[in-house]
Amino acid sequence: MTAIYARASRPRPRFEWVDSPAKALPLVTGWPTLDDLYERIRDPHPHGTPPLASDLAMVVSQLRAALSADVTHTDPELSPARMGKTREPWPELAPMSALDRGVPLAVVLHQGVRTALHRSLAHGFRLPVRAALAGGTPLPVCWYGQQDASWIAYYDVLRRLGLAWYGPDEGEHLDVWAGLARSCGWWWPGENVCVMVDRPEMVRTEPVPGTVHDQIRLQPRGVRYRDGWQPLLTS
User: What is this structure's pTM?
Assistant: First the structure.
């Protein structure tokens, strides 16, 4: 995390560890929301220095653009990959069936790693937990630790398969985010303190019927944090 702060030209913060996102909320009251960041972007003459969350979002965007530029094929992350003259999207099939149907390996990997993990981790986990936490009110901008793994895993897989050649700086930066995804849950970045949530005590998932890439989601009371917070989730 200190390395990520350094990428945004910030010194090492103080780290405040909490047992659940619910315990984090009182510590981040008044921190910028996503609406605040968008309002600053739309303002032709924004006042003051950008908040750390804005700078970190830019750091992540620049990293992902640099990683895409180092992929040996046209990265489907940059634009939807489409078939031949019809320009229709490639079908989403199980990996072996997709390869047998002539779907390019690059598309199979994007569908089976990037898209599949995003569906399970974002739609199946963090979005329902966030909705239960927020109760309909905007939350300060945060990152999601383990649930940010979809784009990290995707670029790591390409590197491991020899389908991407990252420069030393990009590779090291990717490794920092990979280490963070292995180490913590959600986190809220502040200028002087970073509020970090430990990983849940218990997670129970169930398959989403009819999905090609074994998508999963949390059961109705499928996550319990270390302080006992167990949000009631709605589908």
Answer: 0.91
